[in-house]
Design a protein that fits this description.
Pfam families: DAO. GO terms for molecular function: oxidoreductase activity. Keywords: Flavoprotein, Oxidoreductase. This is FAD-dependent oxidoreductase. By secondary structure, the protein is α/β, with parallel strands linked by helices. The chain has a single domain (2-124, 171-364), classed as FAD/NAD(P)-binding domain, CATH 3.50.50.60. The protein is built from eight helices and 18 strands. It has an eight-stranded mixed beta sheet with strand order 5-6-4-13-14-15-12-16. A six-stranded mixed beta sheet has the order 8-2-1-11-18-17, covered by helices on one side. Helix 1 (10-21) packs across helix 8. It is globular, with a radius of gyration of 20 Å. The mean pLDDT is 96. Bound molecules: flavin-adenine dinucleotide. Flavin-adenine dinucleotide binds at residues 6-12, 29-32, 35-37, 39-43, 197-198, 218-220, 222, 236-238, 259, 270, 272, 305-308, 327, 329, 331-335. Flavin-adenine dinucleotide is lined by residues 6-12, 29-32, 35-37, 39-43, 197-198, 218-220, 222, 236-238, 259, 270, 272, 305-308, 327, 329, 331-335.
Length: 367
């Protein structure tokens, strides 16, 4: 069977990996594989899942806008419509079961890759959420008690702040190193790369003059140029920093949504959550907001990415007539990446037919 994967971000690469492991003939199309995934903080934090279609989340976004963390420049209209139609509606329990299975699969997968060879700064040392206000910390603690993932948490002191919630089960990686590792593994398994932007013919199953049995669309926010899906972009920035942090483990400041991860040869700092599809750079200002916790000596590299967000935060993963859709994981694409790649491969190999709630939108697609 010949499978084309459009998009070589974390989701497309993981799909290629699991398909190639089954001996499938795979071609990945992407002008620059990994380019729009490596900016991420690399926190493997599937338990920090946010439902988007809630009044609480809209309120949080408004607070972010007031603080200058978020700008709203452009939103997919279909996304707004679905968000409003489904505001405060809960997903079925089956959706949470799938997410819990995907969270476990992904955490285990990174751990296994690291056991084989830890060439991507894998660290299983947990994640700290830092709160500046006591009220917010208390609300955060209550939220975790209600979390469908039932994560282990500890409340800790953080000097200069109201405190923090520590998640001991979470891990982290260096995204650019993991991307290099997976590209090398899939190349060894004979996956081909065509470094170009393509427009698939979903009726004839052709890309240019190449014919395929299945086509996987894993091209993030750009999926909407091919399919009518409620996916919108929340842009953010990633900076590779030479400097020192006050804490040795990874942390996220809840007020600003800034993540910091000290890695072997740099500190990764990410932030920004703007409804925006443009490549305009506004990333350096993140560093001013984190100056009490990070001393910057130099900026080594700057990258940006576009979180592909569904209206409720749940990934969009399903198949319609030999076209597989794998996107929508929003701010947790790396956290769920291995599982999304695995289940996309299971769909392509006809081992499963559907992912239930996660296949909403896909099974009714028209193209
Ligand atoms: C600042 C920031 C920090 C983040 N931190 C984390 C984190 O710590 N943990 C976490 O789990 N997630 C994190 N995320 C989210 C994560 O980065 C995204 O969910 C993830 O990158 C989405 O992966 P993807 O493969 O779906 O899409 P992308 O990474 O956007 O990849 C899509 C690919 O498709 C290609 N493409 C597009 N159109 C075409 C076409 N027509 N033909 C061929 N190729 C095409 C693009 O070139 C691109 O390489 C963060 C995001 C941001 C913005």
């Amino acid at each position: 069977m010949k499978v084309a994967i459009i998009g070589g971000g974390i989701i497309g690469l993981m799909t290629a990996y699991y398909l190639a492991k089954e001996g499938t003939n795979v071609t990945v199309f992407d002008p620059s594989p990994g380019k729009f995934s490596i900016h991420a903080a690399g926190l493997i934090e599937p338990y920090r899942f946010d439902r988007i279609n809630t009044s609480a989340m809209i309120y949080k976004m408004l607070k972010y806008m007031k603080r200058g963390v978020t700008e709203v420049r452009q939103l997919n209209r279909l996304w707004i419509r679905e968000l409003l139609l489904n505001l405060n509606k809960s997903p079925p329990e089956e959706a949470w079961e799938t997410m819990r299975a995907m969270a476990k699969f992904s955490l285990d997968a990174y751990s296994k890759f690291a056991e084989e060879k830890n060439d991507f700064d894998y660290a299983n040392d947990g994640l700290l959420e830092i709160y500046s206000k006591k009220d917010d910390l208390e609300k955060g603690v209550e939220e975790e008690k209600r979390s469908p993932f039932s994560p282990k948490t500890e409340i800790v002191d953080v000097p200069g702040f109201a405190g923090g919630i520590y998640f001991p089960e979470l891990s982290r990686i260096a995204t650019e190193k993991f991307t290099r590792r997976i590209i090398s593994e899939v190349e060894n398994m004979k996956v081909k790369f065509q470094q170009k932007k393509v427009v698939p013919d979903l009726e004839k199953f052709k890309i240019g003059n190449l014919k395929f049995d299945k086509i996987v669309l894993a091209n993030g926010v750009w999926i909407t140029s091919t399919l009518k899906l409620p996916v919108t972009s929340f842009k953010g920035y990633g900076l590779w920093i030479k400097g020192t942090t006050k804490l040795k483990e990874a942390f996220v400041t809840v007020d600003e949504g800034i993540a910091v991860s000290p890695l072997s040869d740099h500190v990764k700092v990410t932030g920004g959550f703007s409804a925006d599809f443009t490549e305009e750079w506004k990333g350096d200002r993140i560093l001013d907001k984190i100056s009490s916790l990070l001393k910057v000596e130099d900026i080594i590299e700057r990258n940006m990415g576009f979180r592909p967000c569904s209206p409720d935060g749940f990934p969009i993963l399903g198949e319609k007539g030999n076209v597989i859709v794998a996107t929508g994981a929003c701010r947790l694409g790396w956290s769920y990446g291995p599982a999304m790649g695995y289940y996309a491969s299971e769909l392509a190999l006809d081992k499963i037919e559907s992912l239930g709630y996660l296949s909403r939108y896909v099974e009714s697609l028209e193209y």
